[in-house]
Every structure is written in C-alpha cells, then in structure tokens.
C-alpha cells in the first residue's frame, strides 16, 4: 500500500487503506488469493508465506486498514471469528494467573473464561466494569484485565484510561485487552487510552452486512503481536480469503453506516424513553444515562445499540418482537439491517440481565420507518 504524505482522517482511511500499490493497470482492489501453499526453497524463516495457515495475501489489506484505524502501523491479525480472537487473547493469561473481566461482557467470552477457570487454568474475578472502585479492588495480582465498553448488553461504560493505568500499576506485566466491537475504531480508539490489545468481532460493524463471520486483534506492541501470530498459526483459526475480501469491502462504507445508525439510534432512544410501554432505556447518548459523561470523554459518538426494558415483563417483551414488521428478530448486531432480540432467550445469558430486556441494533434504514414500526408494536401491547 502507498501511504499518503499528509494526515488522513478516519472516514477517508476506511476507503483508502489496504489498497494495492499504484502501478499502471494494477487492480484498484486487492485480489482474492486462493492458494494453500506458496513457492519456497531452503530454510523457512520468519515472514515467509510458506503455507496458508501462516499467511495469505488476502488477509493483509484488511489487517492493514484496521490497524490504521486503531492508530498503529503494526498490522492487525484476522481470525476465523471474534471468538477465535477471544481464544487467542485469553491464552495470554499465564497458568495460575488472574483474569479480571466484566460480569456483563460478550456472552461467548464469558463462557470461555468461565470454562478455562473451572479447569483450574487461572483465577477469574468478575466485576461491575462501570464501578471503578470495585475494579480497582480486584486488580492486585492481575495478569489480564479484560475491558468491554459499552458492555453487551447492559451498555455500561468503563473508565478505560484509569483502569488501564491501574492495571499496569498493579502488575507492570499485565496485559489490558479491550473488546471494541460495539464502538468501532471510528467511535473509540482504545490504544490511545493505554489498552495493549484491541479485539473486534469483524462479523459486526466492520464487515457490516451480516454475511461474514470473522474476528481480529490489533496491538502496537511487536512482541505481543508475534505471540498472537504464533498462536493463530499453531491453533489454526484462520480467516478464509473470501471472507477477508468481504470484510474489506464492507469496511469501505463503515463511516457512512456508523454516522447514519448512530444518529438514528439517538433519535429512537429519545422517543423510546418517552413511551409509556418502555420501563427503561439504556443508551449512553441519553443525558440521564449513568454512562453518559464517561462516554462523552472517551467516545466520539454513542454507538447504535439501544437496550429497552419493556413494561409487562418477558411476555410483553416477546410480544413487541413478534409484532414488528421491519425490524428483524435475530441475534447479532452491526449490520445494515435493524435487528432486535430479547437477550435472555439465550440460556447462557447472565441472570443479572433483566428478562424484559430487548437489545436493538439500529441499522441504516429510514429513521421514521424504524420508529413507526417500533411505535406500532409498543402501542399494540395490552397495557398501553
Ligand atoms: C459477536 C461478538 C463477539 C464474538 O464474535 P463472533 O464473530 O460472533 O465470534 C465478541 N464480542 C462482541 C462484543 C460481540 O458482539
């Protein structure tokens, strides 16, 4: 890739990063390379392509683009899924070490951490990540501090700079990992707050079209990157070349999608907060939200996930989902289409997540259409 010689804004980078070199008649987009092995003679050394589990030219444009967005020149690492990236990051906890993790975090990451801790590999300390005093009290002896902010699905906001610094004070060798899936690097750049390793489910906003499952890790520390690259090569959870291409294709419109969905989310959150069938709205963009001030300091926007608690409990919440015609009832988030689900329908969801909580992933449709559909579904509840 040819880097420009002047500063490039993030909403340009999503378009310009990860392009092939500017040579006459070269393709404007990177090709998909379908090869499981690469020419080579003599000793295989670090950096050789060698074999398709170690590297594939199809991964690199996305890896470069993502790291540029997160603010480092060290290329990111694509993985087969967000959870494959989680697996690599959790492997950083040494045997007998201490993992401090939010009690509300991506469900798969929590389940994996709990299973590894149950095998006796390390100690797991779960905390309310918005309660800084509680997190600080859990830090002595920490090996890995896991951050997610906003959290899934409670949308709690962590004090990322303070907690990152405190983890290093508690243990200079500690690694601070942050799942930045909900915010995207356009809204929040954890490396600037002292985080060592940023994790993405590329499946969500980055790819953005609900048609690919991928994950990624980004760090500015060469030693940490080599360790994670080794983990990926040996454990084998690699990306398919076509999926990597789709992710880069999706990334090109990230800025437009995020701009639109964030604006719609704020509008919908304000209106939903005033609806009598809604018991509570969680959205860091609302001034009355407990995470609002912190979010304003750390993020350039508030994301486009909203959580609602519906008056009338679980059955009323289910009735809202069923009555919707435009919103798609499905798990996942971050795609162009608006999705909704009652989180506790998943058996592994933490029981501290209310039964009547609906998670909305706001897409890029016409905002008034999205509102009309929600309003009609809420008005159809017997209580309102
Ligand atoms: C979806 C998600 C993951 C897991 O990613 P997959 O691509 O589904 O494996 C991790 N963290 C967050 C916040 C997510 O939303």
Automatic annotation (TrEMBL):
InterPro entries: Cys/Met-Metab_PyrdxlP-dep_enz, PyrdxlP-dep_Trfase, PyrdxlP-dep_Trfase_major, PyrdxlP-dep_Trfase_small. Its EC number is 4.4.1.2. It is an enzyme of class 4 (lyase). Pfam families: Cys_Met_Meta_PP. This is homocysteine desulfhydrase. One of its GO terms (cellular component) is cytoplasm. The modification N6-(pyridoxal phosphate)lysine is found at residue 204. One of its GO terms (molecular function) is pyridoxal phosphate binding. Gene3D superfamilies: Aspartate Aminotransferase, domain 1, Type I PLP-dependent aspartate aminotransferase-like (Major domain). It catalyses: L-methionine + H2O = methanethiol + 2-oxobutanoate + NH4(+); L-homocysteine + H2O = 2-oxobutanoate + hydrogen sulfide + NH4(+) + H(+). The keyword Nuclease does not apply. Signal peptide: none annotated. It comes from the Bacteria.
């Amino acid at each position: 890739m040819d880097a420009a010689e002047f500063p490039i804004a993030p909403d340009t980078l999503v378009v310009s990063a990860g392009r092939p070199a500017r040579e006459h008649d070269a393709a404007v987009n990177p090709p998909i390379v379908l090869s499981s092995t690469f020419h080579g003679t003599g000793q295989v050394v670090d950096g050789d392509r060698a074999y398709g589990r170690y590297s594939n030219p199809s991964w690199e444009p996305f890896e470069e683009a993502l790291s540029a967005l997160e603010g480092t020149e060290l290329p990111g690492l694509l993985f087969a899924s967000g959870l494959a990236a989680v697996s690599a990051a959790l492997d950083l906890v040494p045997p007998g070490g201490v993992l401090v993790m939010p009690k509300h975090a991506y469900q798969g990451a929590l389940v994996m951490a709990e299973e590894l801790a149950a095998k006796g590999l390390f100690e797991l300390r779960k905390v309310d990540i918005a309660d800084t005093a509680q997190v600080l009290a859990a830090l002595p002896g920490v090996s890995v501090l896991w951050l997610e902010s906003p959290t899934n699905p409670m949308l709690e906001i962590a004090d990322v700079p303070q907690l990152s610094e405190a983890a290093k004070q508690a243990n200079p060798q500690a690694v601070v990992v942050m799942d930045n899936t909900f915010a995207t690097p356009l809204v929040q750049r954890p490396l600037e707050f002292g985080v060592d390793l940023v994790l993405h489910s590329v499946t969500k906003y980055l790819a953005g079209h609900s048609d690919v499952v991928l994950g990624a890790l980004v760090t500015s520390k060469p030693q940490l990157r080599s360790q994670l690259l080794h983990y990926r090569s040996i454990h084998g959870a690699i990306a398919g070349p076509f999926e990597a291409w789709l992710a880069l294709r999706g990334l090109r419109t990230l800025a437009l999608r995020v701009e639109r969905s964030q604006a719609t989310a704020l509008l919908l959150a304000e209106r939903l907060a005033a609806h009598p069938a809604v018991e509570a709205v969680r959205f860091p963009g609302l001034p009355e939200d407990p995470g609002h001030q912190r979010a304003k300091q750390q993020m350039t926007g508030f994301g486009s996930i909203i959580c609602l608690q519906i008056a009338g409990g679980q059955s009323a919440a289910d009735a809202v989902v069923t009555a919707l015609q435009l919103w798609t009832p499905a798990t996942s988030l971050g795609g162009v289409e608006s999705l909704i689900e009652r989180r506790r329908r998943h058996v592994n969801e933490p029981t501290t997540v209310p039964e009547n909580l609906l998670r909305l992933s706001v897409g890029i449709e016409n905002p008034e259409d999205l509102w009309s559909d929600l309003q009609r579904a809420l008005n159809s509840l017997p209580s309102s």
